[in-house]
Amino acid sequence: MNSIIQELERRRESARAGGGDVRMAAQHAKGKLTARERVAVLLDEGSFEETDMFVEHRATDFGMADQRIPGDGVVTGWGRINGRLVYVFSKDFTVFGGSLSGAHAAKIVKLQHMALQNGAPIIGIFDAGGARIQEGVESLAGYADIFLQNVRASGVVPQISVIMGPCAGGDVYSPAMTDFIFMVRDTSYMFVTGPDVVKTVTNEVVTSEDLGGARVHASKSGVADGAFDEDIEALFQVRRLIDFMPLSNREQPPVRKSFDTAVRDESSLDSLIPANPNQPYDMKELILKVVDEADFFEIRSDFARNIITGFARIDGAPVGVVANQPQVLAGVLDIDSSRKAARFVRYCDAFNIPIITFVDVPGFMPGTKQEYGGLITHGAKLLFAYAQATVPKITVITRKAYGGAYDVMSSKHLRGDVNYAWPTAEIAVMGAKGAVEIIFRKDAGDPEKLAAREAEYKARFANPFVAAQRGYIDDVIMPHGTRRRIASALSTLHNKQVSDPWRKHDNIPL
Ligand code: HXC
Hints:
This protein has 510 residues and is α/β, with parallel strands linked by helices. It is built from 19 helices and 16 strands. The protein folds into three domains: 2-242, Alpha-Beta Complex (2-enoyl-CoA Hydratase, Chain A, domain 1), CATH 3.90.226.10; 267-425 and 463-492, 2-enoyl-CoA Hydratase, Chain A, domain 1; 432-462, no CATH class. Helix content is 37%, strand content 18%. Strands 1, 2, 3, 4, 5, 6, 7 and 8 form an eight-stranded mixed beta sheet that branches. Strands 9, 10, 11, 12, 13, 14, 15 and 16 form an eight-stranded mixed beta sheet that branches. The longest helix is centred in the N-terminal third of the chain and has 17 residues, at 102-118. The radius of gyration is 26 Å and the shape is elongated. The chain starts with a helix and ends in a 19-residue tail after the last helix. The mean pLDDT is 95. Bound molecules: hexanoyl-coenzyme A. Hexanoyl-coenzyme A binds at residues 23, 96-97, 99, 129-133, 140, 143, 166, 168-170, 173.
């Protein structure tokens, strides 16, 4: 018996050794943790149960028969985050550069099946060189098997990808189909084709960092939902994110005891809106003052900063927050902000997370750049996402709600459940100046007359009462009571039921 146990331990040791001490040291020298260290940081201490640690590839070409490392470049299993079940796979760059063989793919697919069947999130940690070159088409097949399970799991269990090294070729598309992508600055990059291929095909010379580093994807492309300085911080943020999520779409998000009272008034909000309607203010201040304990987990904070998206709690229960940011481009809706918010709204709706929308939006961004880029289609995404969402939806208009953007931003007409406006709200087809310039074009040469018309328009429309008279706004509320009113509205919506006509699936303008 002793020798059998020793054999088991020897095999385990061999798997744990991965690609060996030299490669592990190289990993550390680059400022990166190893695959197993990452799992240990991510999960509650001692909770990791490893699966398939003895799996080996079956390739024989290119001398591969003599090179087998148990685990085959990916560490898989389940564990707990603050006591809640998650599945995790972590690519081991020390083993064949973390590259994907048929056997490696099968381990991930097995885990995806478990996560889907048992209703728990799946977290993938990427640090890999793409398809296992020695395996050819078997590797391509393995990728497609993973992609299929990503798609099947989408909207059923939360899927999170953490990029902590190279992530290229076949490796990028699995993260792209998950709900959230986090990257580590300076050590991770994602691209479909690397700098060498770029040079050959387009003659463009670019570094890996400039092509697909964390900064690029977190601020330019919007591919990444967050960028962090090092592995430990990124993993810690994944733990924080998981705390807001239900384990699957079969559950409600986890409620935790709040140390903040639901009826807390915040008197400083009464002076948040500047007297001059064109002067910006920081919408984040409002969010932080309204949510529990000023705890806000922002998603895509560096991308399309004219809209804010993120998770918070009200009276202990998770909510998704979407808010125009008047500090950036006056909070206008453009292609990027529409895409960013639409995806977030759909995530919240898929996972039973109520949506709180704070509105201060001057409209859609004009111009050829936006129109040529398909603003119509992208703006429609946000409209579609809000209209479709059946989770509780609370809207607070703080200042401007102009034109189509008024409709889009979770208006009553798109099934907003409770829609409030602050007394400072201006709900109209457009701003007063633009409006009088159009409807009183004949007075264009008479600035005095135009000014009078503008004042008249403002008095009539630059307020929340016309909308309130029609029931499009449920009440005009004092800013200081915003948290209390939102908490109260949310408490009425636990048993909300909405039905839609049967369909195979929708056809959102992609
Ligand atoms: C097999 C690989 C590998 C791969 C790296 N290695 N990539 N082995 N298949 N795809 C091995 C190396 O041989 C080396 O082994 C070890 O991993 C570390 O690699 P290095 O090159 O020494 O590391 P580094 O200098 O840090 O460079 C990392 C890298 C580079 C940028 C990822 O290795 C690289 O460019 N790899 C190839 C990337 C690629 O073209 N992949 C295929 C993409 S096509 P030793 O034994 O020396 O430690 C694709 C198509 C799928 O994925 C499409 C599906 C839809």
